[in-house]
Amino acid sequence: MENLPPEALTEIAAYFQALSEPTRLQILNLLRQEEHNVGELAQLCGFTAANISRHLTMLTKHGLVARESRGTSAYYRIADESVYELCDLVCGKIARQLQQAAQKHQVFPPAE
């Protein structure tokens, strides 16, 4: 991020903001396996179609998912596979932190 203008930093922050909501991460995880329409995603996530549509709009705006109309339905798929590399990197970091915390707790015996 060295020498980036403020406008670029604003765009980067918006991209990360798109990834900062658990429902959007759930949607991305579901789309990792196969494309889905809004109704399918709503059912799989346990939310309303309107709620899922709002999240998909945000993900589409930032180029993470692509929309394709087929008849009366719109299907969504991943548009930027590199998002999974980023998510895997973050998940690995969090897993290591949790493992270190668990090891730290094992050093101290439980109070009796």
UniProtKB/TrEMBL annotation:
<keyword id="KW-0238">DNA-binding</keyword>
<dbReference type="InterPro" id="IPR036390">
    <property type="entry name" value="WH_DNA-bd_sf"/>
</dbReference>
<dbReference type="GO" id="GO:0003700">
    <property type="term" value="F:DNA-binding transcription factor activity"/>
</dbReference>
<feature type="domain" description="HTH arsR-type">
    <location>
        <begin position="4"/>
        <end position="98"/>
    </location>
</feature>
<dbReference type="InterPro" id="IPR001845">
    <property type="entry name" value="HTH_ArsR_DNA-bd_dom"/>
</dbReference>
<dbReference type="InterPro" id="IPR051011">
    <property type="entry name" value="Metal_resp_trans_reg"/>
</dbReference>
<keyword id="KW-0805">Transcription regulation</keyword>
<keyword id="KW-0804">Transcription</keyword>
<dbReference type="InterPro" id="IPR011991">
    <property type="entry name" value="ArsR-like_HTH"/>
</dbReference>
<dbReference type="GO" id="GO:0003677">
    <property type="term" value="F:DNA binding"/>
</dbReference>
<dbReference type="Pfam" id="PF01022">
    <property type="entry name" value="HTH_5"/>
</dbReference>
<dbReference type="InterPro" id="IPR036388">
    <property type="entry name" value="WH-like_DNA-bd_sf"/>
</dbReference>
<protein>
    <submittedName>
        <fullName>Transcriptional regulator, ArsR family</fullName>
    </submittedName>
</protein>
